Amino acid sequence: MFTGIVQGIATVEEVTAVTGLSTLALRFPDDRVQGITIGASVAINGTCLTVTRQQDNVLYFDAMQETLKATTLGALSVGDRVNFERAARIGDEIGGHLLSGHVHTTADIVEIERPENNVTIWFSLPENWARYVFPKGYIAINGASLTIGEVTGTRFNVHLIPETLRATTFGKAEVGDRVNIEIDSQTQTIVDTLARLGYDRPASNTTNFGSASS
């Protein structure tokens, strides 16, 4: 399990691709690999991966075909930067919300607003996943636990403070970038349960209930 509090940024050192499998070599900050072991779980842009090898502060991960298909990891290349979070331990503070590290879908950045001292990023996601996105609700974007601001059809935004921009890859985000999305599990359960009872929410429902900060 993860908390959605990004612990830092790693850089892609090497990508080795064979049929149905990519091995990612990621360079971590020196102080973030202490106590890491082979087999440990680390969320890379919100995707739970297993450490297969370590060489100093470079960790190696294997991403299988299904992972490459369902996430943005298959598009990574040398020099790219990724958010990371090591698996939570019992007793850790949960500053965000509980995440599984299982990416549900991807979304595209369609607009970036830069008012003074913060940034608002608009995303567009597939219609069948928009039904789980509500203003003031939780969502994980590239592994970061964020609060949803406005929702309009299949588009939604998040408002990012300077610390979030500094600590994550969102500080360098650009229109057209694709990101990994993990829907809040409690929201998904509630929406699906109501749908089974006949109280379905249309996927294209349009709402706009103000904004929230993250």
Short structural summary:
The protein is mostly beta strands and 214 residues long. Helix content is 13%, strand content 39%.
Explain what the structure shows.
Lumazine-binding repeats lie at residues 1-97, 98-194. Keywords: Repeat, Riboflavin biosynthesis, Transferase. Catalyzes the dismutation of two molecules of 6,7-dimethyl-8-ribityllumazine, resulting in the formation of riboflavin and 5-amino-6-(D-ribitylamino)uracil. Its EC number is 2.5.1.9. The longest helix has 12 residues, at 185-196. The strands form two sheets. A six-stranded antiparallel β-barrel has the order 1-2-5-4-3-6. It has a six-stranded antiparallel β-barrel with strand order 7-8-11-10-9-12. The protein has two domains: 8-86, Elongation Factor Tu (Ef-tu), domain 3 (Beta Barrel), CATH 2.40.30; 105-196, Elongation Factor Tu (Ef-tu), domain 3 (Beta Barrel), CATH 2.40.30. It starts with 7 loop residues before the first strand and ends in an 18-residue tail after the last helix. With 214 residues, it is mainly beta. A hairpin with a 5-residue loop joins strand 7 and strand 8. It is built from four helices and twelve strands; from the N terminus they run βββββαβββαβββαβα. Helices cover 13% and strands 39% of the residues.
Give the key terms:
single chain, 214 residues, mainly beta, Elongation Factor Tu (Ef-tu), domain 3, 2 domains, 6-stranded antiparallel barrel, 6-stranded antiparallel β-barrel, 4 helices, 13% helix, 39% strand, globular, disordered C terminus
